[in-house]
Structures are given as C-alpha cells and as structure tokens.
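One chain given next:
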Amino acid sequence: MSLLEKKNARLSYMNTHYSIERYEKTKSVKYSHAILNSLGDEYIKGFSQLPRIIKKMEKLVYTWNYNFIGYDADPEVDHFFIRNAQLDFVQATEWDGFSPTSEFGGIEYHFFLEALIAIESISLKHLQFVEIATKKDPILEKINILPLVVDYDVFLDSLTYILGVSKETSEYIFDKFIYDDKKKKYYSHIGSPVPLFIRISSTQLLRSFTGCIHRPIDFMLSELKRQYSIDWDRNTREREQLFRNELYKYFDDKRFITFDRSIDISDNGRIITDIDACILDKETGDIAFIQLKWQDSIYESTRSFISKRKNYIEKSKKWVNDIEQWINTVSEKRMADFLQLSPQLINKDKIKLFVIGRHNGNYSGDEKPYSNTAWCQWYNLLELIGTLTSESITITKLFELIQEESPYNQKNEIKTSEIIYGNYSVELVAPPYNQA
C-alpha cells in the first residue's frame, strides 16, 4: 500500500508471486463444475419434474393470517428437494475431509452430513413455496414470508425423525449449526463462516438462508473443530490413508507398484523423514516419492491463514531437503530394503519428488518452490490426469505437466479499479475479483 496524498491511497500486491491462492481456487471450482457436468443427466431429470412439482406445490401452499403462508407436507415434494440438495452437496470439495465413520463426540460424521442435506432441502423447499405463494397472492410481501422463525423443539423433532437417531444425538448434531451468545467471540471476525440458525430466544431460532444454502458445511466444520478438538486431530491423522487411496486409483496396478502405507526412513534407529506415498512404474523404472498435505479447508482469520501457509511451506521444504539428502547418501540396495523391493527395480536417477496439497499446493510469496520437485494442488492434478488416457499416465509425464502448469508461470490479468467516497479515493490494482 502506498499513500499518494492524505485523501488518496493505492493498494497493490507486495509479493513477487501473488494471487497464487486465487489461481488454485479456480482449479477447485473447475473440479466442482466437472462433477456438475458428470451429473448432467440427474439434473435434467430433476428439472424435467419441476413443472409438475410446482403444480402440486400450488395446491399445498396457502395464505395465513393475511401476511404469512403455510403449506402442507407431501412425500414426493420432500423427496424432490432432498435430491436437489444431494446434487448440490456432491459438488462441494470440503465434505469428504473425513471418513463417513469418523466420530466427533461419539457421533459418526455421516450423520452431520445427512443433517446438512436435510436442512438445505427444507430451505430450498421453503424458497420455492415463497415464490409460488407470491404469484398466487400478490398482496403477500416476501419480506414477511421469506424470513423464518423456527421453533427449536419442533425442528429438533423433525431432524430426529429424518436422521433416525435418538433425540439426544440429534440435539448434539443440531447444535453444530446454531449461533448463540456463547459462540459470539468465535465468529465476530471478518470472513467468519455463516451460521445456519441464530438463537433469538430460549425456544426460537432465526433461520439464515445464506447459511443454509451457501456453503453450509463451513460453519459445521468450524464447530466440529472447536468443540471436538481431540477428535478432530485424531480424525485428521486418518486423512493420509484416504488421500493415498484416492491417488492410487489413477494408476493401473498391472503397470504400477503402489505402497498402501507410509514408509519411514531411518538411520541408526532415528527417523529421518517418511514417504507418504510411493509409486513405481515397472515399464520405465520411474519412481515417485510423494509428500501428501491435507490442510483444513477452513481457517479462523488472516493470521491463521498466514500460519497455515508458513507451516505448509516450511514442512514441505524440510521434507524435500531431507529426502534429497537421503537419496544422495544411501545406496540403491539400502533404498530397496526400505521399499521392500528388489534392488534391480531401483534407479536413483529416475526418482521424482512430488508435494501434493489437498486445498493448496502453492502459496503467494517472493520465492518459487524448489524446481526439482513437482508442487501441486489435488484438484489441479485431477485436471491434468483428465487430459490423459489411462494408458498414457506416467510419472514423468505428470511431473512435467505439473511443472508447466505451475501457477508461478501463469500471467495474471491485472485491472485497476477505484472506489470514491466523498473526498477520499482508493485505487486497487489486482486481478478481477470474480475470476475464481
């Protein structure tokens, strides 16, 4: 930031390599769109049913007390909106952060996800009923019927029935979506996730449609991390195996040897480092040593994001240095012993290093990552793999493509925009906001 005059300011990037996170966000969005395209038939089928569903809903909705609406339940209508919520949910890239059977407070993770789908479907249904009601009765105003005050016990009973769990379990789950005075200090900063419900009395909640429909998982994950920190840490340690299994699915086991465990590298009984994933190409002799980094998709503030970035870069660089030193000093026979392979399969000149992050693989800054390593985000890797046939996937090819596609090699489109408020002006030099 540089001040031009006392009433004028100019904001621009200070780092040599900037907007890297925005570039990588576009890869997550592209992945989400690819999932959407793959579900095209499901969406077409759903939209083809919409006119018939709306006609049925027109008969179910009614004006109540002149200014409000009510509507009767219908299993087919409910199922339609549940399916819509499921299709919307599957596009997200955050929900698979844990195994469905991972437990938080003794409750399996999939119950929290099912609750989210139920809440989103109910919200979508209400929005559609509002549209139908205002067309039927022009006197109605959306400002009166769109907001919804929810009776806590009534909604809890519905959630308990939908999930098929005890009321006590349902109450624990429901709490992860509610904002109240006790949580105020945790969600008072800019960028806080939006809660799904706000407690306004001991018996009533105000439903937030933004919270229920736009990235509802963010608040839930934040609460799981805050309330069950021990469970969170335990479950995040299991992510490595999930990540490894997903990666190996793209390598034909007839051609490639993969290792379903991390490989500890030691010297005289002292652990030097480890290899999270290892792939060997039997045809070419190429070997991939891979560090997997599954960071949390949420962070509490800019400060926590900077800490996350620092932790990622420093630990990844240390891994590269340690593994390179080990490769340079150990014999191929000794390396084969660690990998439990025949020494004839090991050629140190054909080893390539990869650092693959789940939600980020690179960060803005003044330095580029080491050029002898392929640094990549998971969703970028999936995009690259998608450009290849299964027969043409090789370790060397992926290494080269990742290097070519590095966000540090991309040119940012820069635009200058100006905000004027009275006698004050701020000039912003940055990529367009909506590019991601």
